[in-house]
Amino acid sequence: MSDAEICFQDCELEEICDELPSQQPRYILISYKLAHSDGRESFPMCLIFYTPSDCSPDVQMLYAGSRNNLVKECELTKSLEIREVEELTKEMLDSKML
């Protein structure tokens, strides 16, 4: 694992949010427990593209240009984008993944 990679296991979203920089984009590959209305549980995986408002446009373009390739290589069906750390909540994930 390189210095640019951080791996969390069995953690809360708040822990991930605490590690996100305020001026650098990040890709977040996440799998989490999703409870369905019929009682089933699933563990969907999705890519979250975090691109803060304060980030330079050049860096935003660099990350945005690689996003689709990453989604394709990881064979993901869900990809989300957030601009502010506060957007990354369980409620947001549940609403986008159901």
Description:
By secondary structure, the chain is of the alpha+beta class. It has one domain (13-88): Severin (3-Layer(aba) Sandwich), CATH 3.40.20. The protein has helices spanning 13-19, 57-73, 90-97, and strands at residues 26-31, 34-35, 41-42, 45-50, 79-82. A three-stranded mixed sheet has the order 1-4-5, with helices on one face. A two-stranded antiparallel ribbon has the order 2-3. The radius of gyration is 14 Å and the shape is globular.
Strand runs, count? 5
Strand order of the largest sheet: 1-4-5
User: What's the CATH class, please?
Assistant: Alpha Beta
Tally of separate helices: 3
Structure keywords:
single chain, 98 residues, alpha+beta, Severin, 3 helices, 5 strands, 33% helix, Arp2/3 complex binding, ADF-H/Gelsolin-like_dom_sf
Nutshell version of this structure?
With 98 residues, the chain is an alpha+beta fold. Helix content is 33%, strand content 20%.
